[in-house]
Amino acid sequence: MKPVSFYAAYILKKLWTFAAILLVVVAVSISVLRFSLPYMENQKHRVETWLSNQYGVELRIGQLSADWNQNGPTLVLKNVHLKQDQKSPIGLQISETLIELNFWESIMARQVQSQRFELNGLALSVNLALIQTSENEFPIVEAMQRLFLEQLHRFSISNSIVDVITQYDQQLIQIQQLSWINKANRHQGVGQLRVVELANNSATFTLDLYGGKDDLNGTFYARGEELDLSPWLNQLVRTQNQLTQSRGNFTFWAGIKQGRVENAQIELQKSEFAWTTPDARVEAAIVGGRIRAVPDSLGWKFNIDDLTFESQQRQLVTSWVGHIGRDGSSRISNVNSLDMGFLLPLLPLAVDKQTIEFVERLSPKAHIDNFAVSFGSSFLASVDFSQVQWNQVDSLPGLANITGRYVMNDEHGRLTVQGIAGKIQTDNVMDDNLLYENLYMDAYFEWHDRGLRIDVPEFNIEGDQFSLNQQFSYDTQDNQLALFTELDSLPISSVKKLFPNRFLDPQTKNYLVDALQDGQLASAQVLWQGALSEFPFANNQGVFQAKVDLTDSTLKFAPSWPALTELDIKLLFENEALFMRADKGQLMDVSLSKLSAQIPRLASNAVLSIQAQAHANSKDAVALINNSDLAESLGQALTEGIRLDGTLTTQLDLTIPLGEGDVVAAGSVALSGNSLTVPSLGISFDDVKGQVSFNNDLVTADDIVASLFSQPVTVSFQGRDGPAEAYLADIGLSGDWQLTPLLKTYQPSMSKYVNGNASWQAQTKLTLGGESYAYSFELSSQLKGVGSELPAPFTKDTGLTMPLSIIVSGQNQASNINLKLADNITFEGVLPHDTMQFSRAHLAIGADEAVGMGLGFSISANLPFVDFDAWFEAISVLVNNLPSSEAPMLSEPQRVYVNADSMLIAGQNIQQLELVAKHSTEDWLLEFNADQIRAEVIFYDDWLNRGIDIKADFIELADWQGEKNEGFQQANLQNLPPVNFACKSCKLFGKDLGRVDFSLSRSPKGMQIDNLRFNNTNGILYATGEWQMSDAGSKTQLQGELSSPDFGALLKGFGLDSGIKDSKANFDFNVSWDDAPHKFSLASLNGAVDWRLTDGYLSDVSDQGARLFSILSLQSLIRKLSLDFRDVFAKGFFYDKMDGSFQIVNGRADTRDTVIDGSAGEMVISGYADLSSQEINYLIEFAPNVTSSLPLLVYWMVNPATAIAALAIDQVLTEAKVISNVRYSVTGSFDEPVFTELDRKSKEVALPARTLPPVQSEPDKVHRELPDERVNLQINKGGDPRG
């Protein structure tokens, strides 16, 4: 085996041999390569094919030359073209490429290594959109990255263009010089570049990167000094003016991470710009600011901080935020507010000189709160502003303190503004400025080559007195204004201030100011189309129209005629003409419809033509004519002849010269259901049918049929001029009337009194002349067929005649009317025509006592018997159905005189009555003087507040002749008046009530009984209370007291002999019952009564032991010492006091504490009495030393049980208490009491009795039936009370 050294030497020998061979091969190859390089031109197609196959691109080389230098081959390629398509996102054209290869480094790196790489005239197109969106990889991109970042140690580029294509835009970057060095992982380039669309000159830049081609990081820095930014400005500021200066200065940084730009920042230095317009030089500058940007998914977002502009020595500092999208769109908005006045010096860049002058006159001001603008496929901008104002210019109003928003899209803009509580300057075109509460405008702007067009579709103004809606359009090119305005409700006085001074002829305006006197503008519409300077558009080159709707207005259309009032009229001003149309209006009191009027030209000597249908009655029409040029002709005829009342339909034609000339009025009146009045007769006719024609002073009416009080009549009228300027008229009337339907229509309640039919005839003759007239009227009828059931003397049978004659004569001032019915009824009166109310009138019924007429209306009646209730019913029926009127023709009478031998009133027969009623001021005073009454009664006109006052000297009513409850009806709170009653001496049914006073006043729940007092010599009663009324019914409540110095005498005065002597009494009571005060109800009586009687005696008590009780009593002994021994020797029962109380519930009176302290002993009574059923149930106990009695007062107040007291006394006093104790029960009824002795503990002691002289009893009173609303009090007289 050979040694290792042998093998080592062998291997080394072979290696040297291989190296030698390799060197020879390499040397030969290099030599071959060097000598073949000049012939590379013939092999360029091979190079093209290899590169195309290697990188999948289509490459063409115009010329290829090669040489060898000390480091390796040198290649020169000219006109190299790489086609850009879907396979290659990169396209390039290179004028000349110089490549020096480092041969040995390329061998060592096994890839091409360049010592020198120069590109001159490069035109590179990079489709970033294709690279970013394609899912395929492009070898050419990878190859170029390796070439320029790894294979080339250094390269340079000069005079080249890079075209970067994104998805939405394309950007050209001109690289004037670029030197690039690659050293390991560090890559750096320095050069100059220009963004074609941004500047005309270059900025220096440095790109410093590190890392591999797939993870490049670093910084891009650029600095621009005195850059010409005109390409960018010309694109940003679209103007036809020349940009004469553009010097921009800035510094730019961009951070690169992982091959992408991570952030960017620009520091702005002072940059100056200037434009030259045909009339001025516009200068602006950016003084400073900072721009920062970072990428996002859609592009780049950026902030602009403290950007400072300067123009015309005005400076603006503002900050912005924005976004630049990959789609080429950009948007920006402000962070802080700015003053819009800064932009005014820049207006010449956008508008022409005429517009600038217009804006300068406007002198607009505004504060921009929010501003946003977007660039892209279109230009968008929005601005929120406040504190906006501009001056009034020509016919354009001025505004102040406006807020709003402006939005712009390319050449179009929209402006919305709003103002609150401000002023619109309009005194250039109107009389005054306009004050408003709210203002809103929506305007559109269009900038065109020849100026500005403004369209305002909505302009609203709301003020305290008006509301305006306006749309208008204005073009600065031809000074054309198109305007439409709507004005809401506004007083006429304010409308006059809105007449435009510049566009209305002065005579037209003066006429309108004078004609429009009052009213309300409901709405108005103004239309303008044309140049402002060409009004009144004589050649139809424009139009001015104003449509005005007036309501309830007053129009003085001619000086010699009354003004049109209550006018709802539509006015149309068209250039210099005026047209009017109204559906309704009032000419004085004449209603007009279908009114139309024309003034062809509002100039001197204009003529107004009016056509209308008039709706009026003749009275109103005559009043109108009397206030016009026709007063002395047609007015006189219609005033003094006849009057057509009611609604008339008249065709009226008026021709009214506004200058000199007479008014001509003609027309006709078609009567169909109207009313006709003859003033001289004072009568009116309804349902008038026929034809009335007029032509100035001539009036004719033939064959007129009419209805008077719904009854047919025939009327004829002929009016004509007479001699001496007099006017003659003959009127004939006739009719046959059915009274029953007449009364049912006009006075239904009287139809039960009067019926039948009557024929009548009347003739009237009129003489009218000058300022006076005279007439006569006669009507006659026998009234046969008429029946009357009115009280005498108006009672009549239908088969009898009762001649009726009416004669009326009069002149201008008044008419004298005389009426006679039968032989005993006459009426005469004087009727002034100015008031149409009788100034004097008198109605005499019965025997005439020659009562003369005084002022007002009076009635006299002299009759043997008057049924007041019957007349009251008839008159009430008549008066209550009369129509209400503030000025009736025949007012209520001022005086009424009645003399009657007998008058039946309220069920009482009053003898020898003299009644005088006077209407004083507004109240009625009635004086009654008769055998039974003398009193004054005042009925106040203020019925519900003051009511009735009654003051009587005496009233004596012996009996009641009416039915029970007659005259009483269910009370109505709404109709009840206050009442004050005072009677000095009142006797009712023979009972002396003494002086009686009471007063009632209204309260929310009914009537308040303020006081009620009865006062005579034996006692006084005073009470107050309330009379409550509701839908459920009424209730009366009384509380008060009764005091009497001699209670027995008081009772006796009312016909009640109670047996009580020498005893004072005092009662306190509080009671109520369910009904009116005059409808006392026992069944519903509730309340309480406390009573007290002082010492006295019962005169009719039998002597059966009570005297013994008195003798044994210590109290009696004291009285004996006072020499008062009547209790021993006189007939009767003595007591020292009586007292007790009653509680009354639903008519049941209950007592638990009635005590009678007598000389014989004490008696205690408890129990009850049912006042409604008259049942009683008492328990009586007798004890020593207490005077015994029965509930005498209980009887007086609540029952007729005096007999009970007498019987109890007779039973008790037969024994002395000192040896006895007696208990009784009393049951039964008031009329039949039942006494039962319950217990007796006694030892009888006989006492001698002394018989007193008999007491003369009063004769029995005649029993009279009281109205059942009174308590029927009775005293059981005579006989033994025990039965």
UniProtKB/TrEMBL annotation:
InterPro entries (alphabetical): YhdP, YhdP_central
Boundaries of every YhdP central domain copy: 12-1234
NCBIfam families given in the database record: YhdP family protein
Pfam family, one: YhdP
Organism: Aliiglaciecola litoralis
Compositionally biased intervals (Basic and acidic residues): 1258-1271
Residues covered by region (Disordered): 1248-1283
Protein name (database record): YhdP family protein
Transmembrane segments: none
